Description:
The structure holds 2 protein chains of 2 kinds.
Chain A: E1 2-11, E2 14-24, E3 29-33, H1 40-47, E4 55-60, E5 63-64, H2 69-73, E6 76-79, H3 91-101, H4 107-115, H5 133-146, E7 151-155, H6 163-178, E8 182-187, H7 190-196, E9 199-204, E10 207-213, H8 214-224, H9 228-238
Parallel strand pairs in A: 3-8, 3-9, 6-7, 7-8
Antiparallel strand pairs in A: 1-2, 1-4, 4-5, 9-10
Chain B: H1 3-19, H2 22-40, H3 53-80, H4 84-91, H5 97-130, H6 138-164, H7 167-194, H8 198-209, H9 213-226, H10 233-242, H11 245-272
Helix pairs in contact in B: 1-5, 2-3, 2-5, 3-5, 3-6, 3-7, 3-9, 5-6, 5-11, 6-7, 6-9, 6-11, 7-8, 9-11
Amino acid sequence: MIEVQGLAKTFGQFTAVDGVSFEVREGETFAMLGPNGSGKSTILKSIAGLQRPTNGSITIGGMDALKTSLAARKLISYLPQRVGFHDCLTAHEVLEFYCRLRKLPISRIDQVVHGSEFNFNGFSEKRVSELSGGMKQKLGLAIACLADAPVLLLDEPTVSLDPAGAIAFRKFLKTLKEKGKTIVFTSHVLADVEMLADRVAVLVDGKLTAVLPIEELRQQIADKDRSLEEIYLEYASAA
Amino acid sequence: MELSSILPIARRELIVAIRNKWTVIFAFVFGSLVLAISYFGTITAGEIGFQGFNRTTASLLSLVLYLIPLVSLMMGTQSFLRNEGEDEMLFSQPVSRSEILTGKLLGLFAAMTTATFIGFGVGGVVIATQTDAEGFLGYPVFVLLSLFLTLVFLSLSMLAAIISQRRTKAFGLALLLWFFFVILYDLLVLGGSLLLKERSANYFIFASLFGNPVDIVRVAGLLSMKGGEVFGAAGASLLKFLGGYGQAIAALVVGLIFWTAVPILASFRLLRDQDI
């Protein structure tokens, strides 16, 4: 579904991503793990068409995401790490705006807010200025779900959520996964990775150091009697 | 570009401008200006009371040439500046970057147009009820020119925000643009003309008119209100050079279209290669 080949991104002298290649299969949940500044968000932003790679290619659903970016972006929904909306709008108005932008019927809002497994209720008539960080993140997720796009790109999706919200969010992502969505997410929260991911990419200093099926990671945890954190740190320090 | 992508963005921008009270504030400022200038305009002559459209419009024009560029630059820069979380979500949608910019520009222009119509409209109605209708036709032309000036400076604010990217730098550049076009430019042109011989100086001044949208609006306003005679010999030569009153107005309008289009196209080009 997504193919990244030799992706590189530099900002002046700083190399954020250095020749990264990987493939995400249709219906797969692919996690990107790595310390701060390892290039996870830059890769996700490049796939979402927000950043222009210095080198390399990205295809989404067989389309060149750099040359036919509008068509490719129809296949994706992106949730940034920090969402932001105009404070004077209500959550419902924000959802309406994105519905119109995606040329979706306004009735789609009800389907997402009231009809999904995730509890989006309770915020739709509130102004954005009245929403907490977690509620804004939920609003961002609701927007990402509006288009029912086959690919979801999520940058640190549970970072602003409280523990209950994070658990509910993971469950919700599982339902999306069961519906056949292709999900790519970055995370520092290893519980997210362990629960959701089919495969895990470990990034260090902009380089891809390993791509492992989650079963292999679980096996290593069992064999070596170590935690996922310890296994992850081993890969990170080996780079 | 698709209208169905541009309109939701324009609509949202308009709603935000109205909710943030900018539109109401500017409508109030514009309306107060019209009424104050009309009522107190002849206070130095020891008179007080509403003046007709001719004098009010001429006095308003001078003030509007300072005020509208400043207001448009500030409002535009604020809106076109990056808002990290918001822009990432917006620019990842299947909408082109030029559609996003066009939508924002149209929304801001609609907000400013609303403020202009309300402010100058209410003022105009009060003057019409208090004085005779002489010179009334010049008033809508003045409002139209004010809107053109708004559009030019909103386009320039878009370019300033895209070039600068950072808040402080963008507002600094916007203020610099205001200072250059509203204050400095005419001084530079006058200084430059002193260095030239009379004939060359005339051509220089004439050509320099098109280098500043504020001057274009000033000249178009005076021409439409009072005709070429207001400029004396310089006005006569301007009309002669351009082939008459109609052609002069057309040339000035083309100049304003140029000053609107160039910053917009430059912004499209620059944003295309920028990272969000």
